[in-house]
Amino acid sequence: MAQQANDDAPPTFSGQVSNRYVDVDRALFVYFTDGGRTFWHTHPGPQTLIVTEGRGWFQYWGEEKFAIDVGDVIEVRDGEKHWHGAQRGHDMTHFATVPAGKATWLEEVSDPD
Hints:
Blueprint: E1 13-14, E2 17-21, E3 27-32, E4 37-38, E5 41-42, E6 47-60, E7 66-69, E8 73-76, E9 82-86, E10 92-97, E11 104-105
Antiparallel strand pairs: 1-4, 2-3, 3-10, 5-11, 6-7, 6-8, 6-9, 6-10
């Protein structure tokens, strides 16, 4: 089960994932263990992800997923449904900026995705 910041909150990750905020809810490191990933979600503004360790995946709804690696910078499109996380057999960490407003968390990403 995913590590959640609040046990009463709805699930937002699959696998083992933890966060460390850097700038009070505006920037954080997200640590994904082997195959850990977010649920599908959107943000009310643009987001930037910078891969700092490991290998992962990123996918927009309706598009092919693509591999992400150390040093990759992903400028997430404003309001676009997406997910990101570690590849199987790898851990992955990314630094993320968080746009003002809360993310809208949607359904869990299926294994085929």
